[in-house]
UniProtKB/TrEMBL annotation:
Annotated source species: Amphimedon queenslandica
InterPro entries: Palmitoyltrfase_DHHC, PFA4/ZDH16/20/ERF2-like
Entry note about domains: The DHHC domain is required for palmitoyltransferase activity.
GO cellular component, one term: membrane
Family stated for the protein in its record: Belongs to the DHHC palmitoyltransferase family.
Enzyme Commission number(s): 2.3.1.225
Keywords: Acyltransferase, Membrane, Transferase, Transmembrane, Transmembrane helix
Top-level taxonomy: Eukaryota, Metazoa, Porifera, Demospongiae, Heteroscleromorpha
Membrane topology recorded in Swiss-Prot or TrEMBL: Multi-pass membrane protein
Record domain Palmitoyltransferase DHHC: where: 99-221
Pfam families recorded: DHHC
Protein encoded by which gene: 100634064
Descriptive protein name: Palmitoyltransferase
TM spans (from-to): 7-32, 44-66, 147-168, 188-214
Amino acid sequence: MVFHKDPLGIIVFLSVHLLLLYGDIVVVYYVIEYGGEHEGSGRTVMALFVHLFYIMAAFSHLRAAFSNPGYVPQSRIKIDFSSDIEQGKKKRKKELPSFDEWTVCTKCETYRPPRSHHCRICGRCVRRMDHHCPWINNCVGELNFKYFYLFLVYTDLLCCYAFILVLWDWVSNWHKEVEQGKLDRILTLIVFFEIMIFGVFLGGMIFAQTLAVLCNRNAIEIRRYGRPMSFPSVSKISLITGVCGRGSKICWIVPCVTAHIPEPIPPSDKFTDINQFI
């Protein structure tokens, strides 16, 4: 399990869960339960969908926050990588993308797989690192990207569904007198603005992350090298499998199933030298 003692990250992490819980309670108990025309089994079904999206979003968030994002193992003894570091610096100055070469980190001197990057907050290199996300108080990398993406999707689904329910409740009771206290109206109005803001923001995040997966480039690579002019020749299913893992495709939408992503194997010339020290 991974846990970072970053005060800001912990505050944001807890705030996410409080906002999710607040939205779930207000929508179920103030919009659906006392919302006027929702009767009988219809209320139960609507409440179940709200609870489902909330549970899936919260659980995805927990898995993304406490899962190993793909930390590259650090060697237990000091190894001289000076020549590799100099070569890496020259390539970086020339802005030459190296998506299939093992490199040496210039900060922690870790011999790392292709497309790994160093996180200054974690102090570690992460395989296919996308960014360090304060929402989950963790890096988004190869091994927890699936959970982060599911968190975005299920939270946005919750926002969209709650938006429809709140709007429907307001429209259906527009010309009717419904017994609703001042506090109820304030709580409903707050949750409406919450789902509006986060729904739009998360929609943009989902679009950007989906495009990054289909382009086979993460956020760091896009900032450094830009988006490719066309989609890669690799099939879309292969690209999705690369982040969601192998196995049944139904597992892609379930945050409790770990993505089965194979461990990278270093080149034979380096492998024989450093494998015993990692």
